[in-house]
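Hi W.,

Here's what went into the run:
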Amino acid sequence: MLSSIPLPDPGPLILTMQLAAVTTLVLLVLGTPLAWWLAHTRACLKPVVEALTALPLVLPPTVIGFYLLVLMSPRAPLGAFWVSLTDTTLTFSFIGLVIASVFYSLPFMVQPLQAAFEAVGKAPLEAAATLRAGPLDRFFFVAAPLAARGFLTAIVLTFAHTVGEFGVVLMVGGNIPGETRVISIAIYEHVETLRYAEAHVLSAIMLVFSFVVLMTVYTLNRRFPLKTV
Amino acid sequence: MAMLDIGIARRFGAFDLEVEEAIPLAGITALFGHSGCGKSTLLRILSGLDREASGHVRFDRDIWQESATGQFVPTERRGVGYVFQDARLFDHLSVKGNLAFADRRSRKIGDRPTFDDVVDALDLAPLLDRSVTALSGGERQRVATARTLLSRPRLLLLDEPLAALDGRRKAEILPHIASLPRRFSIPIVYVTHAVEEVGQLADRMIVLSAGRVAAKGPVEEVLSRIDLGPLTGRFEAGVTLTVEIVDHDAEWAMTRLDHRGQPLLVPRIDGAIGQMVKVRLRARDVALATERPSGLSIRNVLSGTVRQIAAEADTAYAEVLVDVAGVGVRARVTRMAVAELGLAEGRPVFVLVKSIAIDRPAQTHRQDDV
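Here's what came out:
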């Protein structure tokens, strides 16, 4: 029986993990200051930025993918600049996928972080300022540890959401093995070519992975109420 | 003497705060007033947490804020310690972690007071390894105070640190706070709306009302001013006397005190003969008589002269200030009593004290029904 189950090609799996990891890292660096600003600003621009950040939640992925495709095409300024810099196109490349995923997964990083920073509030930061802690000191040693749960949630959700992306990848990246052929694209292709057995295996891996990830988050959240030291 | 020189204005819609004041950088200065008078805002301006005020704040020769030149020193570089009403401990750190947070960041300033000095002063040794989320309200305030001291501030600001605590917890912390200026030679500005705390802790007080300074001066002087009326509180209003322990009466478990030649009796308190203690007489616990009364359970009868009478229009009450051996004692009586007894300025009266609170920092519980 076992021998009849086709072993999946590890390529799309590895590529998917790489894409999710890089995207999460980039979003952690870019999303944290954005979430911080949103949590603390009283600027009238705030709802505008909040709406922009939330757009990927409601737009069909094909819409995001379409605009990104237009932006990154070698005829557009951004795409042309990239070609002049690297001699390769942004579209149908891994880097292009990362850029697309960053936009697509943005709300999954920013919203939990913003909520966590808002929950921390100004009070402990003011207390830290009166204890001679400067702004960066306050962020890394007061706000970030107090918002640890928010960071955990944001990182896991961003990673998992990027793993599950399909429409944007299809529009921007296509289906190039080792470059843009992520797991969801591979499943789609298997189904298209009627290779259901392979599709079953990959789908099952996705299902189990997603479930384990989410369960880990909820378990961690319950067992460690994030009171360290 | 070095001063904290304040000249600020801060507007919020209909309310505005305007304070021109120089506070001596020694001992405890109480910033007193009802809620909404602007006292906490003033404290936030002094610490740099509120940046919206215009004007100047100078600490001795250092400029902390000067709107005219756009200078503004951020909170973390002012060296102000701030104890918040809600303690604001860091929940992700233990008690020790909270103290170490402050300690590490002020090492370059000096190593006095040491970690152990502060832990000792606030009795924190048994709590060090506890999580701050498992502390009582009183314990939280002690940890917050210790943490602030370990940031080795040049000025300590306390924002109603006892307001959220019940009577017993207050009594547990008050002596610790009272000992700070001597023990760590650090000036304190203490915000409160409780007259008792002012009497027990402060050397001088500033009364704020609707964003303006309504009165200021030594605590005993300001509290004996009856013209301030409701500003210094109706129900809790009173004066503080500094008296000497004369002797202890073992048989009746009483202690005899002396106020400038006039005796006072209280249920036995601890203290050596000759020691000075502060006692508080609330205006509502003081009655007046034109003749020395007899057949009365009240033991404490002082003689004095009416110095001032302030009738409160539209109410039944009047405040009478009686000079007892050079010190003003307030009595809250009815206007009817003033009229029927024929009380007037200069008239000799007997002051009947129903209850005396002992304010000596080492012993702060109230002694009732003397």
